[in-house]
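Whiteboard transcription, Tuesday session. T.W. wrote the structure tokens on the left side:
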């Protein structure tokens, strides 16, 4: 039994009002709300255990270190990594991708070597590669998609050359909701001996993820999109690759020995964690993962799948509705346009009805270009979204359509 009422009670913010209307929060792809359990962790750790980790001999420091490292183990278990050495804490998806882009390109690539991304990437999986392209003369190649928003795998395979060194692709599109066939994408790359980075920002909250089963070389995600706090995220990397890559930033924690002549680096994963880590955030993140594990990722995926089908059906009843992205496998997100109503107008008027959606290019301007539009309205769901909220969205859109008649 999926106890949606009980679940919603775990998220205090869901019972607030905006403009005297009940909040209908449908901006979960941007960030998810936090259960009481996670917020309480932050408060109680600051009040009772706060001390800098790893360096202290005193009781609190050791306790904080213990909690932080137990959190790493919880993340390892959640994505089924082989070892805690493969779990690097970062600030989020963006920093994780920048880390790989920076360390991989400078150590594994030469001018003219190629990275493959897809047309539906978030800017954070485009711009870090472009920055490296400017510095090191590497080349970006782009997997195209069909009009339903599905990547063209034949075209993908044709992009490989002797110079292809890395594939970096999103698991789930934050605009179209497309669930990409990531096992096949990884399998094809591995046939060419090329490693794959998976942007898991939009998959980790919605489906079970097993990095070993996927055989992903890197998998990255943000805590705040999976019911955890902002400012913490994860880079999973196979030990083989993390050992090969040089440090991303320098400072405390990541060193073994420092002299003015030469510095040696700490073992994995600390080699990539310069400075004081977010040891409170890591514990809150592990509790967020614990919370969703308790609900069951399979149950969450099944519940959200039903919501997705219901929302798609109901939205299609609206005259002039155009849904962007009609892939066979979708998750979490529906982007749409209605008649000639500008997405910004739609979003602003929905907001007045208490309905929070996102409008614009969703940090995916090249995708907007491919679709021939400037932006969309995006409704995105979470484990606490209800059919009643989808009904409110549909009624809100119909009301706004009337105003524009
Ligand atoms: N990748 C995808 C697919 C996203 O949806 C997002 C955020 O919306 C990001 C990367 C960037 O995440 P963050 O801003 O948490 O680093």
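and on the right, the sequence the group agreed on:
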């Amino acid at each position: 039994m999926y106890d949606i009422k009980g679940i919603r009670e775990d998220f205090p913010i869901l019972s607030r009002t905006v403009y005297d209307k009940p909040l209908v929060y449908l901006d979960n792809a941007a960030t998810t709300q936090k259960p009481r359990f996670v917020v309480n962790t932050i408060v109680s750790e600051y009040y009772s255990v706060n001390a800098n980790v790893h360096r202290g001999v005193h009781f609190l420091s050791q306790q904080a270190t213990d909690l932080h490292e137990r959190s790493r183990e919880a993340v390892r278990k959640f994505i089924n990594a082989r070892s805690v050495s493969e779990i690097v804490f970062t600030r989020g998806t963006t920093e994780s991708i920048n880390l790989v882009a920076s360390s991989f390109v400078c150590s594994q690539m030469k001018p003219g070597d190629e990275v493959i991304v897809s047309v539906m990437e978030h800017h954070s999986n485009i711009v870090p590669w472009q920055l490296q392209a400017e510095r090191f003369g590497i080349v970006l190649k782009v997997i195209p998609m069909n009009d339903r928003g599905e990547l063209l795998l034949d075209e993908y395979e044709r992009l490989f050359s002797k110079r292809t060194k890395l594939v970096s692709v999103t698991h789930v599109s934050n605009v179209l909701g497309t669930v990409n066939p990531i096992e096949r994408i990884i399998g094809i790359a591995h046939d060419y001996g090329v490693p794959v980075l998976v942007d898991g920002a939009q998959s980790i909250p919605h489906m079970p993820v097993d990095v070993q089963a996927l055989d992903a070389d890197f998998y990255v995600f943000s805590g705040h999109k999976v019911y955890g706090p902002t400012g913490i995220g994860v880079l999973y990397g196979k030990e083989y690759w993390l050992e090969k890559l040089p440090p991303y930033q320098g400072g405390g924690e990541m060193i073994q020995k420092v002299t003015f002549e030469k510095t040696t680096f700490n073992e994995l994963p600390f080699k990539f964690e310069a400075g004081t880590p977010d040891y409170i955030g890591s514990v809150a993140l592990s509790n967020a993962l614990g919370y969703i594990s308790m609900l069951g990722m399979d149950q969450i995926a099944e519940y959200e799948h039903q919501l997705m089908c219901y929302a798609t059906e109901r939205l299609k009843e609206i005259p002039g509705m155009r849904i962007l992205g009609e892939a066979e496998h979708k998750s979490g997100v529906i982007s749409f346009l209605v008649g000639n109503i500008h997405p910004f107008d739609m979003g602003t008027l929905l907001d007045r009805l208490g309905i929070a959606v996102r409008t614009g290019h969703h940090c995916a301007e090249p995708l907007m270009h491919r679709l021939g539009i400037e932006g969309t309205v995006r409704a995105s769901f979470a484990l606490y979204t209800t059919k009643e909220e989808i009904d409110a969205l549909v009624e809100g859109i119909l009301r706004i359509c009337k105003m524009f008649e």
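Someone added at the bottom: The mean pLDDT is 98.
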